[in-house]
Structure formats: structure tokens, C-alpha cells
Amino acid sequence: MKRLQYMLTRVAQGLLALVLIATVNFMLVRAAPGDPVAVIAGEAGASDAQFVAQLRAQFGLDQPVSTQLGRYLGHVLQGDLGFSYRQQQPVVDLILQRLPATLLLTGTAFALSLLFGVTLGALASRRAGKWLDSLITVVALVFYATPLYWLAMMAVLLFSVQLAWLPAFGHMTVGAGYTGWAAVLDTGRHLLLPALTLALFYMAVYARMTRAAMLDVAQMDFVKTARAKGLKPGRILRAHVLRNALLPVVTLAGIQAGGMIGGAVLTETVFAWPGIGRLMFDALLQRDYNLLLGCFLVTAAMAVLFNLLTDLVYTLVDPRIEL
Length: 323
What we know:
By secondary structure, the protein is mostly helical. It has helices at 2-31, 36-44, 49-59, 65-77, 91-126, 131-145, 148-162, 180-217, 221-228, 233-263, 265-270, 276-285, 289-317; strands spanning 83-84, 89-90.
């Protein structure tokens, strides 16, 4: 019952946060320079005042901002994110078409970064002060400091252009018509480069944090007591050091998991990956306000969801934590 009450409270807080985020996003987008009606009218070749006024009335842009905001929030609460007047489709449909590709990319990148980051951080802490620790620390620092777009372009040049091992763009081979496992393998080959590129930065962060946390926990009294009792080093590492050192890593991972979806814009753009990040970038260039707001809201909802899941993972990593 206590866990259920906690979950309901967190869900209510998350919904309130989403309403505030939707309000701020709406005001910021409306305050941004550029008029979508003028762009559409210019592309249609009919930029006379009557046509522009007709478009404004059609999209509701002739109403006061407060009226537009109230109507937008009302639609959002009903699950309606509006209509993309540039692509002539409901925003929800456009996002649902792109969301699986983004979840596949960010989910793979998140799993790779967490797995290799924690493993490398644990290895570095076990060999603290040795050559392996120095090597892992230097590699992590290089990936942490290197710009993501540079890594992406170098990966394309090396593995796609020079070695021709992996495809450079897209998520499937166009016109191949693969089905079943052939389609899965083809998608995996296209996924490898963008997922690794996106994962390297976060892997470096998790490796450095895991190393620091494990070295800190290893000096605590309960670990010294475990050593005095004669427990095997491997058991002390797994059951006492690593388990407690993972708490700050889980905290950071939960925050970054949601942010990674919105932060995949650059990776999706470089690799032409058909996800929400690229959809958001196109909506920004086209002044497609409803689509842009929908993308912002979905990425914010993902961040709220991952934060909620992080709180639940706390109880699994450390049973001493009560909800």
C-alpha cells in the first residue's frame, strides 16, 4: 500500500511537471522569431494579406496567445497534440511513426554505455594506480572530451567509406525487401555505428563515476569489517562495494536516459536515422510549431518516466531504501 501511494504521488507530480513543461514550451515557441503562416504563404506563392489572414484563422493563430495556450493545453490533456500543417498529418501519428526508431537507438546506446561503463569503471578501481587504470581513465577522458559530431563523422569515414564494413546512413537497406531475421540483421548493421557513437560519451561518464564511487565505498567501515571476517575479495567486490557504488550511477543513468532521447538529434541527423530527433530538427527548420511542441512534450514525458523508474530501481539495488 505504501509503495502504491508513493507511485501515485510520483505520477501526479510527473503529470503536473508535464503541464508546466508544455506551458513553458508553448510560450517559448510562440516567442521565437519566424512566422509559419508567412512561410506557408510564401511557398504557396500567394502571400497577399487576405490569404495570410485566412491561414491564420484556419490554424487559430489569429486568437490571443492566452486563448491559444488554453486550447493547446486542453487538447494535450485529451491526448491530442494537434495537427502538423506542414505535413498534413496529426502530430501523434507522426511521432508514433518515428518513436520506435528513436527508442531502438537510444535504448541500445543506453544499454551499451551502462554495461561497458560500469565494467570499465570496476576494472579501473580494482587496478587503481596500475597501467590498466591509467589506460581506462585516459580512454574515458578522450571520449568524454571529444565532440559527438566529430566522432560520428570519423566513424562514417573509417567504417563506411574506407573499410566499407558498415552502412553509413538510414536504418534499413533501401529496396532490399528483407524480412524476418534478414531484416533484423540489416537493421542491426545500420544501428551499430549510431548506437556506438551515442554510447561512447555516456560510457566515459559511467566509467569515471563507477571508479570513483567504488574507491570511495572500498574505504568504508563495513567493507573493512567484511575483509576482517575473511570474506573472499570477489564477494566483497560484488556484494558490498559494487552494489553500494551503483547508487550514484543509477541516479545519473536515470536522468540521462530521458535526456538521451532528446539529445539524439545530432546523431540521428548525421546518420539519417529516422527518429524523433530528426523529426524535431525538421520541424524547427519548417516552423512547424505543433509538431515541434509535440516532440518536446514526448521527450519530456520520457524523462519523467525514466526518473520514476529510477526511483523504483533504487529499491532493487539497495533494499535499505524505503519508499
